[in-house]
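It is worth pausing here to work through a concrete case rather than discussing structure prediction in the abstract. The textbook approach is simple: state the sequence, then state the predicted structure, then interpret. We follow exactly that order.
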Amino acid sequence: MTITELESATLRDCLARWPSGVAVVTTLDQSGARRGFTATAFSSLSSSPPLVLVCLDRSADCHPAFDGAEAMAVHLLRDDQAQLAARFATKAVDKYGGLASTPGLGRVPLLDGVLGRLECELVNRFDGGDHVILVGLVRRCEVFPGEPLVYCGRVFRSLPPEESPA
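Step two, the predicted structure:
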C-alpha cells in the first residue's frame, strides 16, 4: 500500500504534533573525524541490559560514519540549546567549528553543557525504511541540571515552568 502525496503531507502534519525531546548524537568516522546529527527519534529500549535506540536518516551526511562506528554518544539537550540542535541538523556545515569536545568511549566526541549524556557501544542496526535504527548498549551515563529542549510543531520549544501545588 502506498500513501498519496496528500496523505503523506497529512501524516507529516499529524506526526509533527507529537512532542519529543532533542538529542545530538556523535561518533567518529573511519578517518577519526568527528561526526554527528540531531535526533528527535530517541528512546530507551531496555533497562536490562541498558539499551537505547536512535533513528538516523539515511540521507544524512554522517550516515556512513555511523554505518561503520563502534560507539556513539547521545547528548540530551537543554532548553537553551536550540542553536546547537539546529547546527547538528544542518547538512554541509562544520558542526564542530568552535565547539569544544572531549573524547569519551571509543574516543567519541562528548559535548559539554547538556542535560544528560549516554556513552554507548553500537550493538545493532536495523532497517527502518528511509532511516536506520541504531541500538546502543549504554556503558556510561551522566545527568546534569537543566530543563529539556522539546521539538513540536516543527519548532524547538521549552516546557512551561511547573506550577506550584495550591
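Step three, interpretation. The CA atoms of residues 7 and 48 lie 39 Å apart. The chain has one domain: 20-152.
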